[in-house]
Amino acid sequence: MNGVPTQDGKIWPTKDEALHSPVGDIQLVFCRNCTYIWNSVHDPAKVDFVGYEFSLEHSARFRAFTEELAKRLIEGYDVRRKTVIDVGCGKGQFLRKLVQIGDNRGIGFDPSYAPPPGGETPDLVGYRDYYQDRYTDLSADLFVCRHVIDILGDPALLPQLMRRAMNGKSVAYIEVPDGVYTFGSRLIWNVVYEHKSWFTQPALAFLLQKCGYRVLRLEHCWNDEYLGIDVATDETNPTFPPPSEAQAVESTLLRFVESVNETVRDWQGRFARLRDSDQTMAIWGAGARAITLLNLCDPGDSLVKVIDVNPGRQGLFLPRTVQEIVAPESLGNNWPEVVLISNPTYAPEIEAQARELGFKGEFWSL
Question: Over the range 41-70, which residues count as b (16 or more CB within 10 Å of their CB) and which as e?
Fold first, then answer.
């Protein structure tokens, strides 16, 4: 895919900035040995995390997931009254859960870090910076790195830095999107420039083993869309998956490639039928899926609103296609005939909220 927006977690304060936001190309490559998938023409200089806003914590269902994850890590590794470091902590919501539930001390690193509304507390320190060499003298009992290594130019960079800071009893939890889920479900809308890397279970284990870790636990999480891996610092020899497993991944990728044009044509046809019938549509969810859809398919005048419940995204503009993001309450009595839910995972809560706000029309899911 050529000329696509380089970031979906970064949206723009003005129409002009959105219209001229950076673009790049995607050329995916697959390794038949370890099953790693990556964008071979990815330029890390086109991705930054300043002004990054992509929190999913405004979803009650997602909040429940992260709370259960925090409890599992705290209880499973006895992380109570200890130190936790979150590398790429975003605004710090998950780190605060680890601190509060386990009575821990937290240290977070992210250029987009924001202190809580009441200000910093003694048990949590946030660095508005990238995690780098000079911070490896800060040790912790639990390291967390969620949805970061798949975005970086070198996915091994942070695991290697974290390992240098870990003591013999430290554990780390790393989470990434599951490549097999994305490509197996033919979610072309999730294939964005921001993600240089797509990991399968074997590829993620192989990377962490190469970085000097022993895998303690590796499993699917969050509706099977993510992979979560727990690791310790004991070194093990990296092992390739059996050829049959690699062949299965390759078959999944080939089916995905064959489906792309058909999927785009299908949605272009849907939008054309909306226009022909003088009906209008709103997209609910202004994240990666909506951004990719709008850059691959032109809904024209049928699209009247792009909605998001995240206040940090409201009033800003989507890259290249320049739609303004609004709160669902702003529609008042002016709902369109169709609401397109960009991420079906959230469909039940979105449908309930839309009906409560007065929407009477039809729901579509991407």
Answer: ebeeeebebeebbbbbeebeebeebbeebb
In a domain, residue 343? The reply is no
Phi/psi at 239 (5° precision): -130, 140
Instruction: Show Cβ contacts of residue 103 under 8 Å, excluding neighbours closer than 6 positions.
Output: 80, 81
Residue 312 within any structural domain of the chain: no
Q: What's the DSSP call for residue 49?
A: -
Q: How many domains does the chain have?
A: 1
Residues contacting residue 117 through CB under 8 Å, at least 6 positions apart: none
Residue 242: both structure tokens together: 């059996």
Pair of tokens at residue 331 = 């529609």
Range of the domain at 177: 23-243
Q: How many CA atoms lie within 13 A of 201 on its CB side?
A: 13
Q: 132-147: per-residue pLDDT in tens?
A: 999 999 999 999 999 9
What's the whole-model pTM score?
Answer: 0.89
Q: Tell how many helices (H) and how many strands (E) occur in the chain.
A: 9, 17
Whether residue 249 lies inside any domain: the answer is: no
- State the pairing for strand pair 171-177/226-232: antiparallel
CATH number of the domain encompassing residue 160: 3.40.50.150
Cα gap 158→141, rounded to integer Å: 16
**What are the φ/ψ torsions at residue 5 (nearest 5 degrees)?**
-55, 140
271-300 confidence digits (pLDDT tens): 999 999 999 999 999 999 999 999 999 999
Residue 178 in contact with residue 199, Cβ under 8 Å?
yes
192 is a domain residue:
yes
Lookup: tokens for 85 = 């470091």
| Cα separation, 324 vs 297, whole angstroms | 17
